[in-house]
UniProtKB/TrEMBL annotation:
Domain of life: Bacteria
Cross-referenced Gene3D superfamilies: Fe-S hydro-lyase, tartrate dehydratase beta-type, catalytic domain (3.20.130.10)
Keywords, ordered alphabetically: 4Fe-4S, Iron, Iron-sulfur, Lyase, Metal-binding
Domain Fe-S hydro-lyase tartrate dehydratase beta-type catalytic: 288-489
Listed EC numbers: 4.2.1.2
InterPro entries linked: Fe-S_hydro-lyase_TtdA-typ_cat (IPR004646), Fe-S_hydro-lyase_TtdB-typ_cat (IPR004647), Fe-S_hydroAse_TtdB_cat_sf (IPR036660), Fe_dep_fumarate_hydratase (IPR011167)
Taxonomic lineage from the root: Bacteria, Pseudomonadati, Pseudomonadota, Gammaproteobacteria, Vibrionales
Stated name of the protein: Fumarate hydratase class I
Function recorded in the entry: Catalyzes the reversible hydration of fumarate to (S)-malate.
Cofactor: [4Fe-4S] cluster
Location of the Fe-S hydro-lyase tartrate dehydratase alpha-type catalytic domain: 11-284
Annotated catalysed reactions: (S)-malate = fumarate + H2O
Similarity annotation: Belongs to the class-I fumarase family.
Organism field: Enterovibrio qingdaonensis
Primary enzyme class: lyase
Amino acid sequence: MTVIRKEDVIDSVADALQYISYYHPIDFVQALEKAYNKEQSQAAKDAIAQILINSRMSAEGKRPICQDTGIVTCFVNIGMNVQWESDLTVQEMVDEGVRRAYNNPDNPLRASVVADPAGKRTNTKDNTPAVVHINMVPGDKVEIQIAAKGGGSENKTKMVMLNPSDDVAAWVEKTLPTMGAGWCPPGMLGIGIGGTAEKAAVLAKESLMEHIDIQELIDRGPQNAEEELRLDIFNRVNKLGIGAQGLGGLTTVVDVKIKTAPTHAASKPVCLIPNCAATRHVHFTLDGSGAADLQPPKLEEWPEVTWEVGENVRRVNLDNITKEDVQEWKTGETVLLTGKILTGRDAAHKRIQEMLNSGQGLPDGVDFNGRFIYYVGPVDAVGDEAVGPAGPTTSTRMDKFTDMMLEETGLMGMIGKAERGPATVESIKQHKAVYLMAVGGAAYLVAKAIKKARVVAFEDLGMEAIYEFDVVDMPVTVAVDSAGNNAHQIGPDTWKVKIAEMEG
C-alpha cells in the first residue's frame, strides 16, 4: 500500500506550474524549429523566430513564456491501492499547489481566474480553483498531468453534434478558418470524438497532454482509422494557409491529437480545442517516495535562432506622432515604437464605456487623444523589471468598443494580437486609424522593450488596470492600415493559393 503525503502533492503541483510557466516542452520547441526552417512566408517566419527567441529567453530568465499564465487543468489518475496522508481533498491539495505557484515571489504568475462568472467576475487573486479531473485506475501510484491553458486558445474551442455519417475532417477544415488567429498558431489541435457532449470536451483537452509525434506517424504510415483521421486533418488544416499568428504561411498546426470514446448509435459528439504557441504541460508520478523531481531541460535543446528587423523597418516616436504620419504606414510593415502607450483590456473598456455614457468622462490622468492603446494584462514585475512578461491579448474581444474609442476619445491606434472583425476594420478605415500586431507567445521578449510602467487608472482591476508604458523599439507589424488593408485576410488568402500551386 503506497502512502501519498499531502505536502508531496502540493509541492509537486506548485513546482510543476512554475516549471511550465518558463519551460516549453522540448518536443514543441523541436516542432517549431522544423516549422521555422521550412517556412517560406517571411511574416510567419519572423513570428516563429520571435516565439523561439522568447522561449529560450524565458528558459534562461525563468520568467513566463506568456503573460497569460493560464487557467490550470489537472488530470489526476489515482491507483486503487493508494492511501492518502492528508486532511485535504485532491481538489484542495491541487488548489493549494496552484496558490503557492501563482504567488511565488521569485516568479509571480498572473492571476486570471474570476469567480461569479455570470455576475461580478471578481478575481480570486491566486488563480484558484483549478479544473481537476479525477480518475481511479489500477495500481499504487498517482499520475498527474497538469497544464496551464491561456484564454486566447481556450476561447476558440468549438463543439458540434455531428450525424454518425458526417466527416469529422471536413467539419474541422470548415471550422478552423472561423476561429481566427486568437489561439496563436502554430499550435496543436486536440479533438475528442464520442461519449457524450461533456465527455468529448474532456477527451479533447486530455489529448493535448500527449507528446508531439506527427512526423513519426507520417514516416511509418497510419495503422488505424484514428491515425488516418489525424493525418487527414493535419494536411487539410495546413493547406488552409493560415500560418503563424494568422499572417499566412505553411504551418498552422504542428500536430493533431485525437481521443475517442464509445458513443450512442445516433450520435457523434465532436469537440475541437486548440493549444497555442505557449503550449504548457508536464506529467509526473508520485509513488510515495517524495515530491516529483522535475529536471530542467538543457539550454542546448533550443535552436540558435536570431531575428533582426528588416531594412524596411519604420522607427516612430509616439510622443509627437501625427494622424498624417500614421496614414503613411502600410499593412505588413514592421514598426518599432518608442514613447508612451496606454493599456486596456475588456474590463477597462467596459468601465470606460459606462463612464462616457453617464457623462462622467474619462478618469483623471487618462487621455487617449492622439495615443495608442495596447491590449495587455501584464505579469507583475520582479527585481529590476519595469513590468513582467507583457504580450498582447486577443483584440477581437475589444471590437465592440472600438467605434466608441475611435469616435469619442481621439484614439489613434491599437496594438494587440490576431485579427479584427469586418466592422472594426471598416471603423479603422473610416477614422484613418491603424491596428498594429505584436506576436502572441512572445511576452518576455516584448516586455524587454518596456522601460517604465505605472498604473494610471482602475487599480482595483489588477492586471486589467490601465497602465502607462514607456517603450523603446517595441516591435509590431501593421495589421490593418488606415486604408483598411488587412494582413489577416491578405496573408492566408495568398498562402492558401500558393500552397495549392506548390502541390499542384
